[in-house]
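Annotators were shown the component list below and the corresponding predicted structure, then asked to write short factual statements about the assembly.
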Amino acid sequence: MIMDFETLLSTLPGFAEGLAWTLFLTVSVLFFGMIIALMIVPCRLSRNRAANGFGLTFVFVFRGAPLLVLLFLIYYGVPELPIVRDTFLWHAFQHPVFCAILALSLNSAGYLTEVIVGAVRAVPRGEIEAAHVAGLSRWTVIKGIIAPNAIRLGLRNYGNEMIFVVKATSIASLVTIQELMARASGVYYRTYDPITPLLIAGAIFLVLILALSSFMALLEVRLSPELRRKAERARPRAGKTAPGLTAVDGPSLPQTPGTGR
Amino acid sequence: MNWTLFSIGANGWGDELLWGFALTMTLAIAAYVIGTVIGLFAALALLSKSRILRPVSAAYGTIFRSVPELLILFLTYYGAALMIRSTFALIGIDLRVSLDAFTAGVVALALVHGAYTAEVFRGAIISVPTGLREAARSLGMTPFVTFHRIVFPVALRYAFPGLSNLWMVMIKNTPLVSAIGLADLIGQANTAGQNTKHYFAFFTAALIAYLLVSAVSLWGQIRLERNLTRHLPKQGSWSP
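Structure shown to annotators:
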């Protein structure tokens, strides 16, 4: 039961709306996830036992919990609690979009925290010491030495995290949000053709993610002088370099065990 | 907190949840084993000189790592039987196949896992020192024996951190199968919630179960890694 071309055309506006929802969810989750992560990172980097323990627990819980469990817990479970049921919070937790963004952001923040912490720890120790010796203030060191280095070092892992967020938004379809996945299922229930709509949605996701990952690869080359020089050097004899070893072969972070991504 | 909710037997949901948990773990292990085998072959295809195998494997990896797992799961569950049937119809055979939810779940998760595993194995096989391979070849080992006796065991050790990360990913992907109607841990927690209106308790229990599995896996991973590398000199973390 493969649908005909006309039916297919009539479904396309729906897919466009679905794409808009997917993009909206992605951007919101990237934004709120980053905000939450930036609140947890200082805890993780602090020498205070309690703060560090809180950071570790946050990361363990939100990274160890499957996204779907988190989403269902927030969407179905949390409104039961008296503190939510009897206050204005109830209206927020009633709303699937709010719940989806909250669940996805918390999950993303768990991963992001470790990405940022890893990047900050990978900043060469000597540069920070030199800056301190030169008499730069704490804030200037963070702004001028640690942040630019960490952004460069963490960019690739952040790109991977962005890709996971794009893919993860598909889970929002399970709480009635009409994003791409939900549109595809909707078309299936109307036409009894499971293959075409799912392949269309899949192709859209594929294009989205390929575009995102090539953009991030370009950005990494732009931001890293040593990679830029390497890419420029590689260009004249592009035919000779091994495939996959040209541009994106820069410094990478050590893998932490048990990150699960 | 009402603990009788979790009691075993007709009054509580304890046994249902345990069955759900068993299903989740069976599914995760089955998909992990199958997916790892797929990933190994995909990695070998990526590293081969074949003009056909290499692009096919690269395309497989790109597609299955870019498309959401949920979509692949739906496509497998709703579409695979139809696809197989129309393929056989082309050569004039009317083959009626049906894929039950469990098989579809295992196949879909294994395919996704295989795509990631291929990258892990590819990196691990590349990092095996060429000297080992050359030595084995010069001793007269056939390419197969070289791979089987020399390259693969060393590569497996390099691949270990990646493989254990992917086990964590696998555990966290299994709840998706509840979307195709399987009574896994989340499916059971959902049913229990619908019947008792205590969603919070059941989903929290499920969450804790998953965190426990994560913690145990992490512990096992550290133990295994120590065991795998016990012959290597100790200087911080081992490295190739």
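Statements collected:
1. Chain B touches chain A through 54 residues (CB under 8 Å).
2. The longest helix of chain B spans residues 14-47.
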